[in-house]
């Protein structure tokens, strides 16, 4: 409805009523105008009606929605299912052109505007989240691993003699495969154990650069967000090292946007040294469907170079999803989610600590990891047998506890020709098995309470089974004339049985397994 149509409406309905409707319409349009003028995430979230009005207006600017359009090309925004068309708000043309994912499409002005605005709003949110020096970014319809590959492939043209990527170890398959897929050989640098934490061995990274030769190294590939007891890499020191040897630095910031500590590390790295690009997941940071990532950096020309490396047009779905989400939340709403996440981290740490103490375990001390926590599982460790540890993971999954990771000792995994010893623990020989839980954005108090409650039940059940197994072995030993007494120490699983007033032979409490 434009002013002329509102004026004509006054002939049909009372002018006072029409003027009231017109004023309401102008309220929606004012919000849209501010978005177009500023290109920033609104402080206060929009209503769904404003978001839908905006998207419908954008869709009407695409040629597939023109009333008199006659399309005779191979790609004309044709959709067989009306359900699919509605799912995408009839924004069918996607984003970019064959030469650049950020380019404008002549026959899809609405989709192109959607793309530009999404990148602008997301850049604003990255700055609000702590990387204030970010110069440019774009949303790419690929998850984090493939987005990292795109960054590596872009660097190929700048460093044609390079063969290696130096990578402080993190046991996550997609970031390793991202390097292999791009055609490079990962040089894995083992972490160092400092207390309970696994931290970057910066000296070892420098030794590898010197041994390989700086020209042979495509980049240093570092990590912020990760599973405890691994903690974020020493980004500032690595950035300084990259500047010293003139080597690019790509940061895997998969779910680091939600952490002010991770974002601060990136900002400081760029300030004191070199950070060429940092990549983050859309679903992990903004609670949208899987399939999108943000590639950002401090040099607008380099980020544009990466966008031009993307072959062909791209799906607009990730851009549409994150724009709808951020317009609905507003900057204030997103900042509230981040504040709530910090509170849940403290609550999860407290609840896990109480649970661990009740079972003779402990929460590993990992103060440099702002998202993930780890609890030891020493009581489930057999004599070289991980069965009880891995069984706990299965028990949790069947009880609908998702996201918790149970890490046994000594597992081996071969990826791209490289064998990782102690795989999943980020170390060849981490001293204890453990369980991971993360306080990621969107986690609720109920999630934490239910997780801890179900974990408690699983641990009790495991301990009861182990205690009964201990008693059975003692009983069998005694019946064949063997002396089961070897120490005055009470095994924790037997002690659990005694505390529950189970009936055991009197010599049970003297046996150690």
Provide a brief overview of the structure.
Its EC number is 2.9.1.2. Homotetramer formed by a catalytic dimer and a non-catalytic dimer serving as a binding platform that orients tRNASec for catalysis. Each tetramer binds the CCA ends of two tRNAs which point to the active sites of the catalytic dimer. The protein has 513 residues and is of the alpha/beta class.
Write the layout of secondary structure elements.
Layout: H1 3-9, H2 15-38, H3 48-59, H4 82-87, H5 109-128, E1 136-140, H6 144-158, E2 164-168, H7 173-181, E3 185-189, E4 192-194, E5 197-199, H8 202-212, E6 217-223, H9 235-245, E7 249-252, H10 260-272, E8 277-281, H11 282-286, E9 293-297, H12 300-309, H13 317-358, E10 372-376, H14 387-398, E11 405-407, E12 412-415, E13 418-421, E14 434-438, H15 445-479, H16 492-499
Parallel strand pairs: 2-3, 2-6, 6-7, 7-8
Antiparallel strand pairs: 1-9, 4-5, 8-9, 10-14, 11-14, 12-13
Subcellular location: Cytoplasm
Binding site for pyridoxal 5'-phosphate: 75
Family: Belongs to the SepSecS family.
Evaluate the radius of gyration. Answer: 28 Å
Give the DSSP E fraction (strand runs of 2 or more residues). 5-15%
Please state the oligomeric state of the protein chains shown.
single chain
Q: Quickly count the helices.
A: 16
Question: Distance N terminus to C terminus?
Answer: 80 Å
Classify the helix fraction into a percent range: 40-55%
Taken in chain order, the helices and strands follow as HHHHHEHEHEEEHEHEHEHEHHEHEEEEHH
Q: What value does the average pLDDT take?
A: 90
């Amino acid at each position: 409805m434009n002013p002329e149509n509102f004026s004509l409406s006054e002939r049909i309905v009372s002018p006072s009523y029409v003027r009231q409707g017109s004023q309401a319409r102008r309220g929606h349009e004012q919000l849209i105008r501010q978005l177009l003028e500023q290109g920033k995430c609104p402080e206060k979230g929009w209503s769904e009606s404003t978001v839908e009005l905006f998207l419908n207006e954008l869709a009407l600017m695409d040629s597939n929605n023109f009333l008199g359009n006659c399309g005779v090309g191979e790609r004309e925004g044709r959709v067989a299912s009306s359900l699919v068309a509605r799912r995408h708000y009839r924004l069918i043309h996607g984003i970019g052109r064959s030469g650049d994912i950020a380019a404008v499409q002549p026959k899809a002005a609405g989709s192109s505007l959607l793309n530009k605005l999404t990148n602008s709003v997301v850049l604003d949110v990255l700055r609000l989240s702590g990387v204030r020096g970010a110069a440019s970014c774009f949303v790419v319809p690929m998850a984090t691993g493939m987005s990292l590959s795109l960054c590596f492939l872009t660097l190929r043209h700048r460093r044609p003699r390079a063969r290696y990527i130096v990578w402080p170890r993190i046991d996550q398959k997609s970031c390793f495969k991202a390097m292999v897929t791009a055609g490079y050989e990962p040089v894995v640098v083992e972490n160092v154990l400092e207390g309970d934490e696994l931290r970057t061995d910066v000296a070892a990274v420098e030794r590898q650069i010197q041994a390989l030769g700086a020209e042979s190294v495509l980049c240093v590939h570092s990590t912020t967000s990760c599973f405890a007891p691994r903690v974020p890499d020493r980004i500032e020191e690595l950035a300084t090292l990259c500047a010293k040897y003139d080597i690019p630095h790509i940061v895997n910031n998969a779910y680091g946007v939600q952490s002010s500590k991770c974002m601060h590390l990136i900002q400081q790295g760029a300030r004191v040294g070199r950070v060429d690009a940092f990549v983050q997941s859309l679903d992990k940071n903004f609670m949208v469907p899987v399939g999108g990532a943000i590639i950002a950096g401090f040099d607008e020309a380099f980020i544009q170079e990466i966008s031009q490396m993307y072959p062909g047009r791209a799906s607009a779905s990730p851009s549409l999803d994150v724009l709808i989400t951020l317009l609905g939340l507003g900057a204030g709403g997103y900042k509230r989610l981040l504040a709530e996440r910090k509170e849940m981290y403290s609550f999860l740490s407290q609840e896990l600590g109480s649970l661990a103490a009740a079972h003779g375990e402990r929460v590993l001390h990992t103060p440099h990891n702002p998202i993930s926590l780890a609890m030891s599982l020493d009581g489930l460790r057999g004599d070289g047998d991980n069965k009880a540890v891995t069984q706990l993971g299965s028990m949790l999954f069947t009880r609908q506890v998702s996201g918790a990771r149970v890490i046994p000792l000594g597992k081996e995994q071969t990826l791209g020709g490289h064998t990782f010893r102690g795989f999943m623990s980020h170390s060849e020989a981490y001293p204890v098995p453990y369980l991971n839980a993360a306080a990621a954005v969107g986690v609720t108090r109920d999630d934490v309470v239910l997780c801890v409650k179900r974990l408690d039940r699983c641990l009790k059940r495991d301990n009861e089974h182990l205690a009964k197994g201990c008693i059975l072995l003692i009983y069998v030993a005694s019946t064949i004339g063997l002396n089961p007494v070897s120490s005055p120490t009470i095994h924790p699983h037997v002690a659990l049985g005694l505390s529950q007033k189970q009936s055991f032979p009197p010599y049970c409490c003297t046996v150690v397994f």
